[in-house]
Amino acid sequence: MILCCGEALIDFVPLPEMRAYQPCPGGSVFNVAVGLGRLKASVGFFCKLSTDFFGDMLVEYLNENNVDTNLSPRTSLPTTLAFVSLPSSAFSEPQFSFYANQSADRSLTVAELPSEWPDNIDVLQFGSISLVMEPGATALETIMVRERHKSIIALDPNVRPSLISDRKKYRRRFEKWIASTDILKLSTVDFQWIYPEAEFERLLQTWFDLGVSLCILTRGEKDPQAFTNTGISSSGHTPHIEVADTVGAGDTFFAAVLAFLYENRLMQKGSLGDISAKQLSACLAFASQAAAINCSRTGADPPHREEMEVYFG
Questions:
Q1: Which residues, listed in sequence order, are joined to residue 217 by a DSSP beta bridge?
Q2: Is the terminal CB of the chain with fewer CB neighbours within 10 Å at N or C?
Q3: Contact in structure between 311 and 285 (CB atoms under 8 Å)
């Protein structure tokens, strides 16, 4: 099983023609879990979820999309809310305003962590705002470090600058996560914000030296790239589509990467770097198509397995 550990919130997506907002289940890690579930991967979700009606909406949505929520504790604290501002350019990054003071998903503490995970958990996935909002961030870091020798650790920082007051402090924390990470996915926007004056190729080798086996870089409308610690690299192909918006595109891409690797039995601890160039290219093609389908419709709406079979059988 792939266990996605992180935030679950309600995105209020604008409906310009109505001057209104539509509440939609969301959160970066939440979206990855839904994407995996729709692709029929074995997936669970770990997050402290509210018992308010938004929390019930989140649980129901996860279950409808084949995501196991049995490990997620419930609390009476409110659900985090996020208001989305869509950019004028379809390929630009959407902006978010978060309302998360004393909310459910950020309130997880180290004392509340399970002493051990079920034996069927092979991969732990982390990312985004759940790794910057305390006390939950420290709790998730604790899991990452504790389980890194047992499970594959997958990370997508999916940076939200509005929640980060100190870039240098965040960078130090990011490098701590890297030391526990096997699969790193990040966008050029993430990289340029974390390291505004650095060269990607130089830092890539540093990350490999710290233990990363596979690094994937998404580049908006440009083709994604992937690199292994054994020197294999590949570029994908971004399908040309009419873009509705890019909300959830990176999450959908990462979900498809993880689903592909898991389904093809390439998620073996210590041997991730042994993936061939052909396999890596196929993985990027699968993930790019999933992200394209998501971008062809409004909001975070990852494809179902049946939609992907039209392209990949």
A1: 186, 225
A2: C
A3: no
Q: pLDDT, tens digit, for every residue of 43-89? A: 999 999 999 999 999 999 999 999 999 999 999 999 999 887 766 55
Q: How many residues are given for the chain?
A: 313
Report if pTM > 0.90.
Answer: yes
**In Å, how far from its chain's centre is CA 45?**
12
**Domain 2-303: top CATH class:** alpha beta
Map the chain to HEC letters: CEEEECCCEEEEEEEHHHCEEEEEEECHHHHHHHHHHHCCCCEEEECCEECCHHHHHHHHHHHHCCEECCCCCEECCCCEEEEEECCCCCCCCCEEEEECCCCCCCCCCHHHCCCCCCCCCCEEEEEHHHHCCCCHHHHHHHHHHHHCCCCEEEEECCCCHHHCCCHHHHHHHHHHHHCCCCEEEEEHHHHHHHCCCCCHHHHHHHHHHHCCCEEEEEECCEEEEEEECCCCEEECCCCCCCCCCCCCHHHHHHHHHHHHHHHCCCCCCCCHHHCCHHHHHHHHHHHHHHHHHHHCCCCCCCCCHHHHHHHHC
User: How big is the chain by its Cα radius of gyration, in Å?
Assistant: 18
**CA pair distance 85, 137, nearest whole angstrom:** 25
- Comparing CA positions, the residue from 270, 278, 300, 280 lying closest to residue 152 is 270
CB atoms within 10 A of CB 116: 10
**Angle between helices 249-263 and 277-295 in degrees, nearest 10:** 140
- Gap between the Cα atoms of 214 and 181, Å rounded: 9
